[in-house]
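Okay, any thoughts on this one?
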Amino acid sequence: MRIAIISNSAWYIYNFRLNKMKMLREKGYAINVLVPWDTKYSNLLLTEGFEVKSWKISRASVNPISEIYSILCLHKLIVLIKPNFIFTYTPKGNIYCNIVGLFSQLKIINNISGMGVISSKMKIFQFLVRVIYKLTLQRKNVVFFQNTNDMNYFIHHKLLKHNKYSLLPGSGVDTLKFVPNTKNKDVYLNFLFMGRLLIEKGLIDLIEAIKFIRFNYTFVQFFVLGMFEPPRSSAIIRSDIDHWVKDGLIRYLGQTDDVHSVLLTMDCLVFPSYYGEGIPRSLLEAASCGLPVITTNHPGCRDAVVDGVTGFLCEPKNPKDLSEKIIQFIN
């Protein structure tokens, strides 16, 4: 039996789906990964023993001609591989594979790990994505959601034609790997932001919150760990990070595949996102390491925290409220 794993990011598959693919391989399935070629992460997947096919697609493109070409390339790869089952991830992976599936009997399992552009302020994007999902989600598809808010959205807008859907709360973490630190930590109180460097992930709100408290709490440090995104209006650029570092607001740690080692040096994860999240992996990893979390009262984020017990919830897009929750944690 052959399984195809489809996503618009090799980094995403390597970091979030590797253990699942290993488990499927142990059960006797042959795994093919269809992703845009990434010199580092595609090669890491090859090193792990998986077949990797280069899918020509841009994560950030909205050019109709380029997107049609990407769909045709995906169709060609699927015809070549002839998978028995297809697992799709990320919005483009889900939608484009569903379009290909309209003309075949492909058995597709869609994973809706957040609303992405459906949660965009741009109503035209919301409308277009809803229409495409409604047209392409077939009765034969199985759909997994990561939080009830997303599942209810699809049900309310009648995007599902069947009852083959269920809640799969988060992508999961290896709790044998992400374990609490038993050693003494730094004399400083260390806060970490960990995630993609997008405005909607709340990093700018965190910067504003830091400005409220920085001079009254000199024993507190803020760290940022995350990858830069392709150029787009919501991307935080390197000059922004450099400016905040120069002003002494944050320390930038770059990007790493060894997230656990970073978490062991921290006291709290701060993730003030208002992005269309599923259940953020960073929150699950922090929780597995025994770290308290400060995040937003936002779908997906709030599902990973018991407010006042395992962390604090703040209002989205509210740096003042965020700063108050940070101070509450400090005290």
Observations:
- The longest helix spans residues 64-81.
